[in-house]
Amino acid sequence: MFQDVVELSSFYSSPLGKVTSRLIRRQIKTLWPSVKGMDVMGLGYATPYLKNFRDEADHTFAIMPSQQGVIRWPRYKDHDKDQYGRYKGNLTALARETDLPVKDASQDRIILVHCLEHTDHSKAMLREVWRTLSPGGRVMIIVPSRLGPWCRSESNPFGHGKPFSTSQLKQLLSQNMLSPTRWTSALYLPPFKSRTMLTALLTLEKTGRRWWNQFAGVLIIEAEKQIYAANPVEGSKMKIAEPIAVGTQMTKSSLVTSDDV
Questions:
Q1: 235-250 pLDDT, tens per residue?
Q2: Phi, psi of 218 (to 5 degrees)
Q3: Which of 22, 69, 88, 238 could potentially form a cystine with 5 if both were Cys, beta carbons 3.0 to 4.6 Å apart?
Q4: Assigned domain for 165 exists
């Protein structure tokens, strides 16, 4: 079951939510340092992680699953409208995660967050992701880690839905024509809410990555769209002996036996 969009919005507006998005965005930026000239789509509740790309990508928009609900994005005041380029309106849409209103092979990058762990149709959804990705396009999936403390606390969105291990996530992607390329993790301390511990979340992230990496709160994995060739592999054609004219003398070299075929 999907978590309600109002609850997700409330979390990311809180001090803990702002720290959470900041730490995860650092890792996203590490994997995708530039999206210049690309089209970027978010699936799930991805808006806290899309705003870094708005000024750089050609087009950026978000689709929220119908069971989750949708909320307007970007949310800005009237006097801030001039800061958001040519888009002055809403960049989100509501749709079934298994039936995306997006053209085939039209997206260069897709960020999927607060979605895979909730859907009951993971295979159909990942096939839709594959369909909408351009050749060589890549998807980044952010899910709660099975070993981390965040999946055990319902005070944050990563405490809802099904957590994954790295091997489980890689296998699921490979089964749906998405080849895992790189992966990382984030959120190495429990989801504390006190101001002191929020500071610790920011300052001890690098220490956690080094010493207790296996207990990260979220897994972040990048996968590339697989394209299968329809043509046979060169060099696999069977060599057939040249035909001979009727009535001519057959030589041993011109005979075709069953072993030759």
A1: 445 554 555 454 444 4
A2: -135, 150
A3: 69
A4: yes
pLDDT of residue 193: 81
Question: For the segment 122-162, what is each residue's pLDDT rounded down to a tens digit?
Answer: 999 999 999 999 999 999 999 999 999 999 999 899 999 99
- pLDDT-derived band at 213, boundaries 50, 70, 90: confident
Range of the domain at 25: 5-254
Asked whether residue 43 is domain-assigned, the answer is yes
Q: Which helix (H) or strand (E) holds 206?
A: helix 205-211
- As given in the structure block, the two tokens for residue 258 are 């069953």
- Residue 20 CA to residue 11 CA, distance in Å, equals 10
**169 lies in a domain?**
yes
Secondary structure E strands in the chain: 39-44, 59-65, 92-95, 107-113, 133-144, 178-186, 218-225
Contacting residues for 179 by C-beta, under 8 A, at least 6 apart: 173, 223, 224, 225, 226
CA 16 to CA 87: how far, in whole Å? 29
Please check whether residue 259 lies inside any domain of the structure. no
- Work out how many domains the chain is built from and give that number: 1
